TrEMBL record:
Name recorded for this polypeptide: Isochorismatase family protein
Annotated ranges, domain Isochorismatase-like: 4-142
Species for this entry: Bacillus salitolerans
Hydrolase among keywords: yes
Ranges in coiled-coil conformation: none
Length: 185
């Protein structure tokens, strides 16, 4: 049976704190949840992969860094990307395949861009996805508040499937590292 990995997508200072992009909605709460999820993953020896967007803070080294409160350890992977989908033009898929990963727990920024696109892309590539409902965030846009965007994605992505693989939305207080998808197959 395949294993589970944690993806921490674009949890970079420039998105979380700003000034050019952030601060994200519910910054302290979201960081607390992601920190707890990372701690739990380490306790369970779940591989952790950080995705870092090359466009964030491209002219500001501090904004480009992964947020210090949830920074990777020496055992974690860090994969850089240019596209919204963390699989596009990166070695993420190969890295996951080499580790026999079949289930991804996803946290990070921004909900409607990289979190959404990577989660959808993962199902097409053969991964089941658990999106942590309180472990992703974004900023307001011209049409919707960040709170509305997050609520919409939590409702809209739950159950989204691509033939054999699908997305479940689960709260961080659930057993998110349990590959619950197998109960439905």
């Amino acid at each position: 049976m395949g294993k589970t990995a944690l993806l921490v997508i674009d949890a970079q200072v420039g998105i979380i704190e700003g000034p050019s992009i952030g601060p994200i909605y519910e910054k302290k709460q979201t960081l607390r949840v992601i920190k707890e999820v990372i701690h739990h993953a380490r306790h369970l020896s779940v591989p952790i992969i950080y995705i870092q967007d090359l466009d964030v803070g491209s002219d500001n080294e501090e904004e480009f860094k992964i947020h210090p409160s949830i920074a990777p350890s020496m055992n974690d992977w860090v994969i850089t990307k240019k596209a919204t989908n963390a699989f596009h033009l990166t070695d993420l898929h190969e890295t996951l395949q080499n580790q026999y990963i079949e289930h991804l727990v996803v946290t990070g920024m921004k909900t409607e861009y990289c979190v959404d696109t990577t989660s959808r892309g993962a199902t097409v590539l053969g991964y089941d996805v658990t999106l942590v409902s309180d472990g992703h965030s974004t900023t307001d846009n011209k049409e919707l508040t960040a709170e509305q965007i997050i609520a919409h994605h939590n409702a809209h992505l739950h159950g989204l499937d691509n033939v054999n693989h699908f997305i479940l939305i689960r709260s961080s207080n659930e057993n998110i590292f349990d590959h619950k998808h197998l109960e439905y197959k």
